[in-house]
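Sanity check

After download, print the first record. It should look like this:
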Amino acid sequence: VHESAVDLAETLVRLIPSAEMVRYAKGGGEACTVAVRIARGVTNRDKVLFCGYHGWHDW
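Expected C-alpha cells:
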C-alpha cells in the first residue's frame, strides 16, 4: 500500500465522524458493489431498491 493512500485514509477517518475505515475501489462498479454489500450486512436486508437514469438519445 502506498504511503499517500494510507495518509488519505487517515485524513478521511479523522474528518468524517461516522467513518471508522476506508476502502479504495478501482472503479464505480466495484465501489457500488462494496456499498451494497455493506448496506445489506448492516441492515440484514436482502433486497436493494434501484432507480437509475442512463441518458437520453433522439434516435
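If your output differs, re-run the checksum step. Summary of this record's structure: DSSP finds two helices and no strands in the chain.
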